[in-house]
## 1
Amino acid sequence: MEDDVKVLLIEDDVAAAEMYRLRLVADGYSVVIGRDGHEGLRMAADEAPDFIYLDLRLPGLDGFEVLERLRADAATMHIPVIILTNYGEPDLRERGLKLGALEFLVKADTTPAQLSDSVERATGPRALPST
Amino acid sequence: MPGFASPWDERAVVANDASGRLFDEAVTLASQLASAAGRDREAWLLLLRGDLLTCVATSPSGGTDSRGPYRLSEHPDLDRAITSGDVADGPSEVLIPVHAERRVVGLLVIAGQGGLEHHERGLLVALASIVGLGCSQAASIDELQEEAERSRRLERLKSEFLNIAAHELRSPLGIIRGYSSMLGEGTLPEAGRDVALTRIAGKAEEMAQLISEMLETARLDTHGLELELEPVDLRQIIDDAVNAMRPVLGAGHRFVLAAPGDPIAVVADRPRLTAMVTNLIDNAIKYSPQGGEIAIDCTCDDRTATIAVRDHGIGINAEQAHLLFTRFGRLVTPETSHIRGTGLGLYLARETARLHGGDIAVTPTVGGGSTFAVELPLV
């Protein structure tokens, strides 16, 4: 599909990644998953996603480091990023938003439907689900 | 008294200003008293730490010269004075033991020609007892400060722990909420339904496990654990634990089991022992994210059975290994910070092993990784 919106999930929790992917795919997005910080960065550069969900607690590089590097690279600096984590502390939230994250979502409080809505908010109306 | 093993160390004394002043004044007074008869005398106060007598105060006439430290084994005269607890008259000095809490903690040394007059001696012995009281007080103050520091540390650990536990509960909760919301909305594709139900059950189990570990820990703190003992074959326990963990075994992992052909009879609380072995296997899987062999060996000699769970994973920093089995002692390093877990499992594992009359230890696996070995007494 030409106007296919590609979402990169940088998430080491297999169960969480799989669940959000199910919903995003059902809503017509194409989804790729990076399992750790380094893989996430590589995929952000190689796959040119339209949108990134970023976990904070990750093997290798943590989410903040990933975000800093995304912002420092001309190829990835404009990709919208939403932090998706189980850490809801205000100082982390503030740090994430300062680093340029669009939103800061707590996984336990974010259903797949709400997650999908957040992509739509960030990238405009979603593509039609493929049938 | 706990933590009172060596209250007379330098730290206890020197760290306390009030005591320091007391010692200086006592020694000055001692030298003045001893000099009152017109003879030049000097005084030192030596306090005992282990086998070592260290000077903590010097009389002004003694200038800035300190004395010692003296190792008791190399100074029989000092050793005798300490052991006997009586005033000892030497040719050029008098040694007056300092008593505190019914033991000798140091010596007041008066040096100079000629012995002490009877009344001088009485006064100096009294002075030595005041110094002894000062020592006791310094030690108690020090102990109180340590106790306060310990409880502050524990409080901090507790809140850090609560933080970790909350996050650990949030992660399975997120999955349960997510899938159930999709089931409720009817937005889950047909193919995902089975996955959803399996995940929900698995994550609910994970939460139940975590909550029961927290409750076990709380129970241990308040009442201690009561074991329900029965004769069991240790091989059966290991089988049960291995079978429980097979579903979470990663693709890159494999179990290698080794056990004797005959039953290994121990008297044990079956569910608790099974939970302990399950937990060790769970850790071996979690801490070897690259996969590899997870070996579970069961061996025994005449009196002891040993279960060893060996992985080839991240391994443990040897300097921090002693913290592993403590209540809030989860080791978090950049390599492990993303791995789920509260650290309660290993604390409970050690308590369980000890309640069974055994113990648990961790050693590095040759070539990387960790080996956790539990020893249990045989029937």
## 2
Amino acid sequence: MATPVMEKSDKAPEPGFADSPYITVTFRVRRFNPEVSAEATWEDFQLEIDPKERVLDALHKIKWDLDGSLTFRRSCAHGICGSDAMRINGTNRLACKTLIKDISPEKPITVEPIKGLTVLKDLVVDMEPFFQAYRDVMPFLITKDTNEPTRERLQSAEDRERFDDTTKCILCAACTSSCPVFWNDGQYFGPAAIVNAHRFIFDSRDEAGEQRLEILNDRDGVWRCRTTFNCTDACPRGIEVTKAIAEVKRALITRRF
Amino acid sequence: MSTTETTASGIGPVEGADASVYSVDNPAPLIEPPRKRTKKSPKSTRGNFEMAAWLFMRLSGVVLVVLVIGHLLIQLVLDGGVSKIGFAFVAGRWASPFWQVWDLLMLWLAMLHGANGLRTVINDYAERPNTRLWLKGLLYTATVFTILLGTLVIFTFDPNIR
């Protein structure tokens, strides 16, 4: 899973440790301001911070106390809105789900925008190509029956279970921007779009699976996946992204033969 | 989006840079997203080619494991190893249609498998359309040449050549 978890330690806490929970941490943040310079540069910020705080708290501290011009997205700050995906110590994570103590705070912690999308300022990227790919797979229920149903569309627990994993996506773009195929020319649909197509292709209530499969059969569709598993590693929700892509590939093959 | 603390000019002070270049009258250039999918970006017209290529890689790979390991065993390990290989050895093997078919199959599958693999590598790593065009052109030329030459040799091989 992408988000590190607390390692169980049977060692007793060192004496004196309890006096102050604060440690000094260096945050090396990738800064970019197109109105000032065409070049992005690294800027170091030193903070006294509790290692049990999250990277997002550190970014808040920097923005509120040290440099108000630092720009990043965040909304709910609890790992659900998917706004604050960024590259922390070289790995795509949500800043609001990454504890400082889990990412070796004794060394400088690097914070960069996610790769493969245009940086607008500091840690903010243009998500439009990402959402374009998402819209392209028609991420909504489509039924052939155009009449409004008179009752809810029923589904068995097993049918619901079939696509349960891919309903967890929060569209943070951590997977898509960790994919080396997407980094190259950005025309590849990307893992997130395929995951959201999977969510409807394998939904027994949906009737446009064939259309969605046809879209993903594109030159820049699922066949560009090189199964590097970067997306599965990056997903902050623990979705088995590469498995979902493989299931779409299998569906494409089995519907033909 | 969390916005910056705006000063009067809308730009926070940034060290070592001249922020006065851009103003309301002279705004900073708009950054064009390089990868936006527009109406102009090429739409796929290739049908199931990518699927066929993907499937071919898997199937030919499985067959090639058998063919290549068998080939290596016969040529390099069994019955005296590499020292036995000579014109007579090859001539003797190609006298049998079985080995002709084996070698022909191995030639075609290995060449197409390798060429398709390199095609995807070029697609993944060559960024400029011209680079792609030239690299793929070179790849396809080399592949077709090798396949044709090899096929020609297997079918027209004359053991009595002198």
